[in-house]
Amino acid sequence: MKKTVFIFLFLLSVATVFGQKVLQKTPVNPPKKSTVTLVSSDKAEYTKDAAGKNVAIVHNGLFKQDFSTLISDSAYYYQELNMVDAFGHVHINQGDTLNIYSDKLNYNGNTKLAILTDHVIMVDKDATLTTNYLTYNTATRIGIYNDGGKLVNKDNTLTSKNGYYFAFTRDAYFRYNVICNTPDAIIKTDTLKYNTKDRITYFYGPTHIYGKSAKKDNDTLYTENGDYNTITELARFGKNNLYSQGTKTLKGDSLVYDRLKGYGRAVKNMTFNDTEQKTTLKGDLGEYYKDGERVVATQNAYMILVTEEKDSTKTDSVSKRGMALTKTDSLSKKVDSVTIKRLGLVPAAKPATDSVTIKRLGLAPVVKATTDSLPVVHIGPPDVVKPKTAIARKTAVATTKTKAGTTPKTRDKPAVKSINKVAPPQVHKDSVTKPVPAQVTDHIKRDSMFVGADTLETQILTYKDYKILQRQRWEASHRDTSIKVIHSVILTKPPKVLTAEMAKILVDTGLYHPEFFGKPKPKPAAKKKPVKPIAPKKVAADSIKQIRIVDSLQKVYDHGLVDTSRIRIISGHHHAKIFKSDLQAKSDSIFYSYSDSTIRMFVNPIIWTQGAQLSGDTITMQMKNRKLDNMDLFPSALIVYVEKGDSTFFNQAGGKTMHGTFKDNKLSTMKVVGNTETIYFKRDSVTNKVTEMTRTVSGTGFARFENGTVTFGAFTIKYQGKGTPIAKVKGEDKTLKAFLWKPQLRPASKQDIIASYKPPVEKKPETPKNTPVKGTMPVKPAATKTNGNKKSTSKTAAKPAAVTPAALKPAKDTTRLIKPDSLKK
Fold first, then answer.
1. What angle do CA 196, 200, 201 make, to 5 degrees?
2. Which of 22, 189, 327, 478 has a CA positioned 20 to 30 A from the CA of residue 671?
3. In angstroms, how far apart are the furthest CA atoms of the chain?
4. How far apart are alpha carbons 667 and 803 in whole angstroms?
5. Do 637 and 616 touch, CB atoms closer than 8 A?
6. Mind giving me the DSSP string for 668-695?
7. HSE (side-chain half, CA atoms, 13 Å) at 297
8. Where are the alpha helices (DSSP H) in 332-380?
9. Which runs of consecutive H residues, i.e. helices, occur in 484-635?
């Protein structure tokens, strides 16, 4: 009985608690359901539909739900279903700003979803959206179209296939075939967000922005993530960014471009490329100015210049058109043997015409009929000589078929008779079965020249502005020291005593008696000194002096350019370096102009090539046909080169100026002018050891290089030379006064031209702690105490270490020199 009462009371308490929770969850005053109400109408008729529901046919009715009103010419009002179907001049209004117009409407008051069709126009302040099918939610104020639409916001027009408009935030999202047309640009993308208040576009896919300027140099922007302000025309991109204008492109991980100012900024992995002039500029930070087409690159900046040369190792021995072998004219010019010997020239070898060479090359001589009595033999690939006329071509085909075993057609017989008057072409017997080898064109070997500096700058100038810039640079480096600068005296403290006196003007009484002492005697006529005629040599020298400018920047060349010609210039400042596969250089600053294709290096420039080091105050290197042609070093020019990697003996040559030439991008000749000094070490041809040092002094020197060694040398104008055995040469006499040898500054790779590049350091293998170092005395480890089978080490026991005596400087391992007995003691 007690158990039954206890269970009943427990169930009653649980039911009470559960009932209280249910009452707490159930609201006291549930919200009223929002319904569509008919406010007014001109006429209303009530009927029933097919399902038996009451339907009101309303003419010029006004409906309202919450903050939305609906007006139409006619409508079906389903009061029980809380729905309205409207037709003709449908108008939905929300507040004072948003209005929607259409021809048809289906509105559900329960879901507050309106489906508008046919000529739908939605107006939200200064934005107008037009489409043929629109789904609009009056509660969330979100409109959606899926069959094409257009949004007009002041001067901007956006079209797309799908669209989403949010009236609360005034944001619009467009999808598929999105085109945004602004007064200054056209934007084409796949996904775009647009705010009708700020008029800013946001991109989330591949996007192109095309300029609409009246000029021909319209720019184009590409990105896959970014935004563009249509008012300020400021673009900010963050993924796969590209700016292009004509032949110029600018890339960067982050790109900012202001179209009104014509200013762009690229951050991280910046790349500027000019395909017209084959120039590539890279860096981690770059700035672009459209007006002067100027680009400034900093932070690991470097530039790539492409050089070209014919690759003789891959060129076919047979030219494209074949080589003609004719008899040499008896009246042709011959090269004097003395001249060939003096210049070190080698006469060109005659082409091989023997049968062995022809057979080895797989060629067949083809005899071609000419008007001359002597036949001309052409060496070329075996091929059938094609007649020019159509009849001749048919005859050639018929002749080939005859040899293959077929009979020619009868209608080609007259043509055969007409052709037989001329010598028939010889056909190779294998020309039908063997394919004709393809013509081999000239191979071009391309190499890249890498130029690096702390700051690299490139821009486009007219030839007139370029000449002005040259003059300014020359005047900056050639100051007129004859002009005295008078420094003005500025008093920092007032003087202690300052007095002023009026100026007294005395009266000249001689004015009243001009002839008191008689009339002045007339001065005798001055005798004119006879003018000596100026020597014509001096006149010519003075005229040349006025025209000539010492600096190479002001040398005037006839490049065939007019003042309006466009020229690209490149300048690098601080720690400039050049790396090429066969040439490296460094200087503090560098300048390159496309007008004369000359690289100019200033402030301690050094060039390394083929084991030689060239230095001077200023160095210029000129390129011709995209390969190195010549170079100039002035003043204090010096060249140092080593033979076969022997860096103990340096061959040297120095002077005021040097002029060198290149052949196949390799140093070929060098001419030294003014105070020429040379040091050359002669070697034994058998042992290759240095036996003698030759030192010369002259006015002019000339040398020819081949494979990095001097093959010919000549000296003129007050030549003096002296040879000294190498055993009698002192150390200070082995070098010139201006000797300079800096191989550690030579860039070893294209990565070395970048300032922040650090070459990897090879880790040395770690030596074990207990192994003694060579040349040290090992220390005996501390003794240990034993307690039974266990060993205990005392706390005062020292760890084994290697002690090096300060006064001991052994040449060999001292552990071997110490006797074993001494170690035991």
1. 105
2. 478
3. 173
4. 56
5. yes
6. EEEEEEEEEEEEEEEE-TTT--EEEEEE
7. 29
8. 337-343, 355-361
9. 536-547
- Locate tokens 């060579």: which residue? 774
Q: What is the pLDDT of residue 451?
A: 92
| Separation between Cα atoms, residue 803 and residue 783, nearest integer Å | 18
**Res 46: pLDDT:** 83
Total H helices, total E strands in the chain: 9, 47
DSSP helix/strand/coil, 341:
helix
What is the identity of the amino acid at 95? G
Distances (CA, A) of 261 to 231, 233, 258, 460, 489: 13, 9, 6, 18, 46
Sheet strands (E) in 603-725:
606-609, 612-615, 618-624, 627-634, 637-641, 651-655, 657-663, 666-683, 690-706, 709-716, 720-725
Instruction: Measure the CA–CA gap between 801 and 776, rounded to whole angstroms.
Output: 10
C-beta separation of 601 from 594 below 8 A? no
Mean predicted confidence (pLDDT) in 754-775? 63
What's the rounded Cα separation, in Å, for the pair 238 and 215? Answer: 28
Token digits for 597?
A: 């294709």
The confidence score (pLDDT) of residue 445 equals 66
When pLDDT is averaged across residues 259-277 and rounded to a whole number, the result is: 89
With a cut of 70, say whether residue 643 has pLDDT above it. Answer: yes
Between the alpha carbon of residue 453 and those of residues 127, 296, 554, 575, 743, the distances in Å are 52, 11, 24, 5, 19
At residue 115 the predicted structure's pLDDT band, cuts being 50, 70 and 90, is very high
* pLDDT value for 388: 43
Q: What percent of the chain is modeled with pLDDT above 90? A: 30
Alpha helices (H) along 362-389: none
Q: Please write the tens of the pLDDT for every residue from 321-348.
A: 333 333 333 333 333 443 344 434 444 4
Pairing of strands 254-258, 263-274: antiparallel
Flag whether pLDDT at 191 surpasses 50: yes
pLDDT confidence band for 545 (50 / 70 / 90)? low
Half-sphere exposure of 819 (CA within 13 A, CB side): 3
Alpha helices in 303-373 (DSSP H): 337-343, 355-361
Which residues have CB under 8 Å from 161's CB, separation 6+? 146, 147, 148, 175, 176, 177
List the one residue out of 136, 100, 132 whose CA is nearest residue 118: 132
Distance CA 616, CA 585 (A): 12
Cβ atoms 710, 717 nearer than 8 A: no
Beta partners for residue 578, in sequence order = 451, 585
Distance of CA 335 to the CA centre of its chain: 48
Query: Tell me, what amino acid is at 495?
Result: P
> What is the value of pTM for the model shown?
0.59
Please give the residue that has the higher pLDDT: either 806 or 66.
66
- Report the range of poorest mean pLDDT among 60-64, 183-187, 413-417, 740-744: 413-417
Tokens found for residue 500: 């002023």
pLDDT tens-digit readout, 480-518: 777 777 777 777 777 777 677 777 777 777 777 777 777
Please report which residue ranges of 79-174 form alpha helices under DSSP H. Answer: none
Nearest to 576 by CA among 756, 744, 458, 455: 455
Residue with tokens 């082995």: 734
The DSSP result for 74-91, as a single string, is EEEEETTTTEEEEEEEEE
- Rounded alpha-carbon distances, angstroms, from residue 568 to 229, 450, 470, 502, 522: 32, 17, 14, 66, 69
Q: State how far Cα 76 lies from the chain centre.
A: 69
CA–CA dist 194, 231 (Å, integer):
13
The DSSP symbol for 708 reads: T
Q: What is the pLDDT, as a whole number, of residue 351?
A: 41
The answer to whether the beta carbons of residues 452 and 303 sit under 8 Å apart is yes
What is the chain's length?
825
Residue type, 197: K
Distance from C-alpha of 131 to C-alpha of 151, rounded to nearest angstrom? 9
Please check whether residue 72 is in contact with residue 39, taking contact to mean a CB–CB distance below 8 angstroms: no
Percent of the chain with pLDDT over 70: 68
